Amino acid sequence: NDSNDSNEVIDSIQSTTSLFLTVQSENTDFRCKRRTASCFKELMFGQNGDENGVCYFFGTNFDKECWVNPVRMNRIELKLSCPKTRYVAPEFLVSRTYRSACKITGRPAWLSIDLGTKYSLVISHYTLRHDGSDQYLRNWKFQATHDLINWTDLVVYNNDMSINLPGQFATFKLPFNKVTNAQY
Q1: Is 155 helix (H, G, I), strand (E, B) or coil?
Q2: Contact residues for 157 (Cβ-Cβ < 8 A; gap 6+)
Q3: Which SS3 state, helix, strand or coil, does residue 19 take?
Q4: What is the C-alpha separation between 12 and 99, in angstroms, rounded?
Q5: Which residues touch 181 (CB under 8 Å, ≥6 apart)?
Q6: How far apart (Å, rounded) are the C-alpha atoms in residues 169 and 14?
Q7: Nearest to 18 by CA among 118, 120, 95, 126
Q8: All residues at 6 or more sequence positions from 84 whose CB lies less than 8 Å from its CB, including other chains
């Protein structure tokens, strides 16, 4: 949610991958863990841009429909540190369509994805996709929370060189001891 470099630009999140989606309701058709009585769905990372991420899963209404942008359908809420413009809007950041310009600005620049109170994630990987600019993401924190107040740094990146081309995907694995269950 926050960055060491106040001028940093955050690019679009294509999908969050290799995670367990935990459902807090008993009235679902997902596999249930007997010991915890909560339901879950495992979404396994295959490749960048695949159809296995949480944004895709919400966009297909949990594998029940053809994909539609989950922000536009109010299935997830995405908040940004900057106002909506013709170049940046929450629905752009989870779109399956490449955008040549989509930058989040602010001091610090940030975004958060809210899955709602019924869902939480156990995240082991996430994928970013850069826009068409040459201002590559280098410094950021990947954080999680349940309450929007107490944020946990899952990993901090300083001078990361993973993204070097416009439109490039990069997938990041979280350290095992940082895998957490979070709503945001």
Answers
A1: strand
A2: 138, 139, 140, 141, 142, 172
A3: strand
A4: 9
A5: 22, 120, 121, 122
A6: 8
A7: 126
A8: 90
């413009």: which residue's tokens? 85
Q: What is the pLDDT of residues 1-26, one digit of tens each?
A: 443 333 333 333 433 333 344 343 33
List 78's β-bridge partners, or say none: 113
Higher-pLDDT residue of 164 and 152 is 164
Integer-rounded Cα Rg, in Å, for the chain is: 16
Please, are residues 72 and 89 in contact by the beta-carbon 8 Å criterion?
no
Given a cut of 90, whether residue 124 has pLDDT beyond it is no
31-41 pLDDT, tens digit per residue, is: 333 334 357 78
Cβ burial 135-166 (10 Å sphere, 16+ → b, else e)? ebbbbbbbbbeeeeeebeebeebeeeeebeee
Cβ atoms of residues 122 and 179 within 8 Å: yes
